Amino acid sequence: MRSHPASADYARHLSLIGAALDARITHPTGDPLPRRSTWGPALDVALPRRGLGPDAVLDEVVAHLIPNGMRAVDPEWSGWILSAAESSVLAATAAAAVTGPQRYLLTAYNLVEDVSLRWLAQVCGLDPERMKGIYSSGGSVANLVALGAARQWAYEQRGVDVAADGMAAAGRPGAIYASSETHHTVLRAAAVLGLGRSAVREIPVDHRQRMDVAALAERLTADRAADVVPIAVVANAGTTNTGAIDPIRAIGELAHEHGAWFHVDGAYGLVAWADERVRPLLDGLDLADSAIVDPHKWLSAPTGIGATFVRDPTILERAFTQEPAAYLAAIDAPADVQVSVESMGIHYGDMGVELSAPARGTAVWATLLALGSEGVAARVREDRDLAAYLSRLAHEHPRLEVLAEPTLSITCFRYAVPATSPSDADALTEAIYHRLVRTTPYVPSTTRVAGALAIRPCFTNPRTDVEHVAGLADAVARIGDELTGR
Ligand SMILES: Cc1ncc(COP(=O)(O)O)c(C=O)c1O
Questions:
Q1: 269: Cβ below 6 Å to ligand 1?
Q2: Average pLDDT value for residue range 420-425
Q3: Residue nearest atom 4 of ligand 1, based on CA coordinates
Q4: Which helix (H) or strand (E) segment is 99 a member of?
Q5: Stretch among 9-13, 25-29, 91-95 having the lowest mean pLDDT
Q6: How many angstroms is it from 296 CA to the middle of ligand 1?
Q7: Can you give the residue ranges of every domain in the chain?
Q8: What percent of the chain is predicted at pLDDT more than 70?
């Protein structure tokens, strides 16, 4: 007999955890958050020698984790770009954790990985027949995979297999072109790929934080004259700071004119294609050689899910194949009805940087199944309307000003004091922000718009409604008045 047999009390545990989560969601918000000193000691304990058993774990989760987690489930949360998982996702994720702990083998989870990628492409305006996808842990790795494919492709055009022979064999340096508003994970990807952060050419932006296409053209031309390989041009479909969308078609055409791979970072904004009012801004997606989107941002998937789509999946295999592994050798036979180990199903392990990986598609499948394409469109539309509403409120208020108008669901604004210096204005915004998050339930984030500090709510939380937006504007104005003695 085993001394510690596996526990299998799923029904009771899931129903109790569900009840605790429901209680957290309906809990009146706005209470001050308990300080770490009140809950930290209960969790920061030594590893027990004798395990306490699953029921004790459940008690700890209910007593100490759920009440002391992020406020992301509260309607006043608008910080960062995320939305807490919903119950449909929870059920699917729990099922996958137990009966689909890997995305491989010809199981329902391997199929749902593929189905969900096709659905995701469809809601994001990518042609599921032409763009094949793979999940990874989020936008960081999704960008790395896309740019790794771009690097492989760029040097293959010049007769070099960098996956096999390394950058030392490349002969010529390469460059990646992206706007100065591009997420810093593009720089990190360049570092990891051996190109170096300095290989990323930061192209300036216009007054709406969109890439300056003329400046891009100049830089591409100058680099070509210097014998630099144009590896990829990156366009933003929704920047992290303001939600700006670069002129996608113009950038894609220029990239291809210069023989560069065209990548679209839509980690945040590609889902906005579901709102038909956004589609003209996303015109040109058909030119993309790769694109990414993070279901854990606007689609309520649990954090840890990004997707890379590429036009030619064979390039992923050439860039990322893990090489034959002895312990996987016997399971390569294609099979049709097979849930054991005779077929791996789709070989995602050869298309990215992970072998073992959860069946992330299950959560995406659950979200999209629960919402449908119309539900996704409604979410995006309503979140964008909230951002537009906040902009209106700020314009109408005598002491609020908008620093960046919303394109997607971000509005950058601040309390305005005429004739203050930029540094005094920033200091006041910072003081307002600190008082806001300490003394009210509102949790936006901050960012800089053309150098100026702004309060930056990002509306991707389906629990947020107009009264919370109005409450945020009022709270910022009130705290600004208090701090300036008005
Ligand atoms: C546009 C964009 N790209 C990439 C990333 C990185 O994504 P992740 O945090 O999922 O790794 C983010 C994150 O906010 C983002 O907004």
A1: no
A2: 90
A3: 139
A4: helix 87-99
A5: 25-29
A6: 10
A7: 101-368, 372-481
A8: 95
Q: State yes or no: pLDDT of 332 exceeds 70.
A: no
Q: Which residue lies with its CA nearest to atom 14 of ligand 1?
A: 240
Other Cβ atoms less than 10 A from the Cβ of 170: the count is 20
Give me the half-sphere count of Cα atoms (radius 13 Å) on the Cβ side of residue 83: 24
Integer-rounded Cα radius of gyration of the chain: 24
CA of 36 to the centre of ligand 1 (A): 28
Question: Measuring CA to CA, how many Å separate 151 from each of 137, 185, 364, 384, 409?
Answer: 21, 16, 29, 35, 33
Per-residue pLDDT for 123 more than 70? yes
d(CA 113, CA 355): 15
CATH 3.30.1380.10 is right for the domain spanning 101-368: no
- Please check whether the two domains, 101-368 and 372-481, share a CATH topology: no
Which of these ranges, 136-150, 295-309, 331-345, 397-411, has the smallest mean pLDDT? 331-345
472: phi then psi, degrees, rounded to nearest 5: -65, -45
Nearest atom, ligand 1, residue 296 CA: 10
For residue 226, report the distance from its CA to the centre of ligand 1, in Å: 32
Nearest CA to ligand 1 atom 8: 139
What is the band of 34 on the pLDDT scale with cuts at 50, 70, 90? confident
Which of 3.90.226.10, 3.90.1150.170, 3.30.70.270, 1.10.3720.10 is the CATH number of 372-481? 3.90.1150.170
